[in-house]
Amino acid sequence: MKNLNDKRAILGIDPTKRGLAFVYFEGGRLIDWGIRHAGGETADFDAVFRLCPADVVVLEDPDAEGSERRPSMRTVLSRLARAAERRGIVVVKVSRYAVRRGWIERGITRKHSAAKMIAEDFPALEAFLPRPRIKAYMDEDARVQIFDAASLVLHAFGTTDDSLAA
Length: 166
Prior knowledge:
Layout: E1 2-4, E2 10-16, E3 19-26, E4 29-36, H1 41-51, E5 56-60, H2 71-86, E6 90-94, H3 96-105, H4 111-121, H5 144-157, E7 159-161, H6 162-165
Parallel strand pairs: 2-5, 5-6
Antiparallel strand pairs: 1-7, 2-3, 3-4
Helix pairs in contact: 4-5
């Protein structure tokens, strides 16, 4: 099992058309995760933040080079960043392209393979590992976004092997 290098309370959020996927680390350990379905993105963020009071929020950088987010989702990401900043939370923005490059450098070219590796590092997520998509035109399983949120956090902060700390 692995832990984050940073011990602060860290909340990774990946907004989607289905809601807000999130992962929450505290003391370097994975504490909570899920997808919050509700009325609007700020309401969703309020609910997630009440459950997971973070010192740091990690979001995708919608203005980064190579961003493939649609304008409406770029607006959502900007609103989430402002909502976090208003609460005095440090916002870390991560380029999705940089995350992909990081996985490719490790020899992982598919999202499902990345999700599988994250589940190996954080066994609590294994039960949420979705099946790979059979056809590219099929919608992704909603649980993939939990692993997308985790990828953002892991790219920003890195991990250490928990067994080495013992």
